[in-house]
Amino acid sequence: MRRLAISLASLLLLCGLARSAYADTPTDGAEKVKRTAQCQGDWLPATPTADEVMRGEISLVGLPPYKLGSKINWAASPYRNRSWEFVFQSLRWMGTLVVAYENSGDERYLDRAKEITKDWVASNRRGARGTPAYAWKDHPVSLRSQALVCLSMHVKDSWLKDSLADHARLLADPRLYKKGHNHGMDQDIALMGIGCRYGRSDWASLASRRLTGTVKLDVDSQGALMEQAPRYAVYVYGRLQVAIANMKDCGRRVPADISRRADALKDFIAHSTMPNGYMAPLGDGSAETEPRVETGTPKQEVKVYRAGYVYGRTAWNKPDSAYYSIRFGPGLKFHGHEDHLGVTYYAHGRDILMDAGFHSYEKSAYRYWTLSPEAHNVPTVVGQRFRPRTASKLTKSVIGADRQAFRLTDKAYGTARTRSVLVNHGDDLMAVLDTAAGGKKVRNLWRFAPSLKVVSNEGGRVVLADGKFRVTMLQFGPSCRPVGGQKVERGGKLGWVSPTYLSKLPTSVVVSPDAASLLTVIVPGTDDPKVSCSGGKVKVEGVSFSAGLL
Predict the structure, then answer these.
(1) Cut 0.85: pTM above it
(2) Which segments of 124-218 does DSSP mark as H helices, in order?
(3) Contact 113, 151 (CB under 8 A)
């Protein structure tokens, strides 16, 4: 399921997480070529390779190869894909040629890199007619700067130096600075790189000052990323390592706030990573993101982040460990989705409950739907209009070794909705209680992993199966009465999931009927759990808990 539409390297290309395609050891022909810190490292994407660029074919963000032709069309957008345009204009693919030159000593690579870049500079003057507007947006400018600085280590022509100065002036403009965001970090890294390259201490000092403020806004004191998509924590961590290395190379002191928060990010990345080694696909996060960061093993199995995340697991370093996430906190921003009070659940070595995931950054109806509450496992208040960007609170938590419970609330529907979540480990199960204030009824939906298909639906008991594996979902209303009438969509309006970039798979979504309260119990691994609910007590296969959960 995890590799249906795009390779991991191609997806990481979108956010700069892929490693260089070149080895650290130069070939014999490269002995006369100086290998530079500005060119060597992990800043290059894995695709395309230098030889592919030399052949005039580039494959970006996992889309089919595009033929550059002898005369490059810098306004090209063959797939009408914003991410493709961004990577194309970043010129990092050109940078692969300079690294290949340093590693091989073959001047054909450098000659072609110079030819491509000189043509780009002549064809894309800032503000000129015919220059694609996106070419000079903040992020392409930031990432292109590193490719240009790398080229400048071997090409001393005035046109290149002048272009880098133009880039620096734009990067230094406070009106265009993306403070508190990974784009701002990239702007600072780029500005410092150009400042250090040409001895402009004013540019380098500005970059250092701004970066400290941006890091303190984007990474809180617990190490949580504030951009509301955990996979971006990997990108930010990697970029902070680049920033720290650049400061040291430039002879500058690394601010303590940057070092501390970069270290704290590692714990956040670890807690955000499921037992299967992939990051929880929350917000704009793909289910195939492998962090590949040496985080160590955190001391806690359960972690509550004030930024709006609860993560819990049975144990570390066990692929069959149970794992869950719960969302709350500040209203939607940056890479977040309207997923507050939403849960995901992983048990028996597999996904059970999932979000709809991240499809792309294209301005499509489906993209905007993936941001909506209907794309997540959340409660809604019947008859009330949803209020976007509403904050939510975690009001109570009880954390034990084998069982945890939490209560969350907000007014995203104008009146208070409250969700309590209980997770039991060992005998794995998740129980969720949803209510609304003022006598309003609630409804909820549950998006199961695509491999799980409904095999029975009767009397408030829904059973899903994948081969011999079974999951049972039960729902109860007030006074422990079973609630029947669940509807199932696979496809249609609600039944979709996008586990990887540009993928869209049908999946089973169970929609509850309206009720004054809804107690939902998810039991993985069985199609016939022994369940009783009476006198305010619930018993599932010998596991007992209060019908109020807390």
Answers:
(1) yes
(2) 138-152, 158-172, 182-197, 201-218
(3) yes
